[in-house]
Design goal:
single chain, about 300 residues, alpha+beta, four-stranded mixed β-sheet, globular, binds zinc ion
């Protein structure tokens, strides 16, 4: 397949050369030990190859299913090869905008926008299940504050709670960034109950020792630097982001950061595919009607 406009998107290695290879990769990940019927758990099946995506028919209850059911790829009309290219491009250090993706894989802007949001959704939902544990640092911080300008007040900065695990050298490992809704402006801070709600939702308390930093002048600097880096990077890739999808983009940032800590490019790609296979897709309608995140403290 001819791919246009990719010359400036190196390094970029296709692990999969054609549609068939992508399909087999998806089937192998769905059923690593061979087919299991989702209805009756029988393992015998016949494979029906007459469709674009092969169907598997259970040998006992005759239920038909495909490897794409229950994944972000379910119901897609886009060739898996294009999805797989999008997954590789998503993993570039800076990510990729919908406009550039649309050029890179030759689809409309709307399709590229939807593909990226579906991947982002899978990464965010998957990551939400993984609690922080061990030595955990939590900051009350601000997203969108320009540290190079000596302005006293940044009216558009959004209050966030940031948390991370640290390794033995004190470097942040897994990171989570959570917007505190309806709190904007650099004079605002997360309240105690918002910090507690973050810890309740994202930290395994039994296995953790949590250190909380809630005062501006003594935040945990390595974590603060990550919040600034997230802002700079998201701004340069996507331009200004509204509140509606901002939490999803923050999840994308922390998810990609975590994925990129994988040992090899291949294991990074496999982990991302695993996320996309484990999370059912979000529809276009759900995306456009999505409300900005509800207050954690209000939900808790
Ligand atoms: Zn069955």
């Amino acid at each position: 397949m001819e791919v246009r406009g990719l010359t400036d998107l190196q390094p970029f290695h296709h692990r999969f050369q054609n549609e068939q290879a992508c399909l087999e990769a998806v089937i192998a990940m769905k059923w690593p030990n061979g087919f299991v019927c989702p209805r009756c758990e029988h393992t015998g099946c016949s494979r029906l190859n007459s469709r674009r995506v092969p169907l598997f028919e259970c040998g006992r209850c005759k239920h038909q299913t495909s490897a794409l059911v229950g994944t972000i790829f379910e119901g897609t009309r886009l060739p898996l090869l294009k999805w797989f290219m999008a997954l590789d491009l998503f993993l570039l250090p800076d990510g990729i905008s919908a406009l550039r993706l649309s050029q890179a894989i030759a689809v409309t802007y709307k399709t590229a926008w939807l593909v990226l949001h579906k991947i982002r959704h899978a990464v965010g939902e998957f990551d939400a299940r993984e609690l922080l544990y061990g030595e955990v640092k939590v900051n009350s911080d601000q997203y969108g504050r320009n540290p190079s300008r000596f302005e006293v007040v940044h009216p558009h900065a959004s209050v966030v709670v940031a948390g991370c695990t640290v390794n033995e050298s004190g470097e942040p490992q897994q990171v989570k960034l959570e917007l505190v809704p309806q709190k904007r402006g650099s004079d605002k801070r997360a309240a105690r109950r918002e910090l507690t709600a973050f810890i309740d939702e994202h930290v395994d308390r039994l296995l953790s020792e949590v250190q909380l930093f809630s005062q501006a002048f003594r935040l945990y600097t390595p974590l603060r630097n990550i919040v600034r880096e997230a802002w700079k990077l998201l701004k340069s890739t996507y331009g200004p982001l509204g509140q509606k999808h901002l939490q999803a983009y923050l999840n994308e940032y922390t998810g990609r950061r975590w994925l990129r800590m994988s040992e090899t490019e291949e294991s990074m790609g496999q982990k991302l595919l695993q996320m996309c296979m484990a999370i059912p897709g979000i529809s276009y309608r759900q995306l456009i009607t999505r409300q900005p995140k509800q207050s954690l403290a209000a939900v808790a």
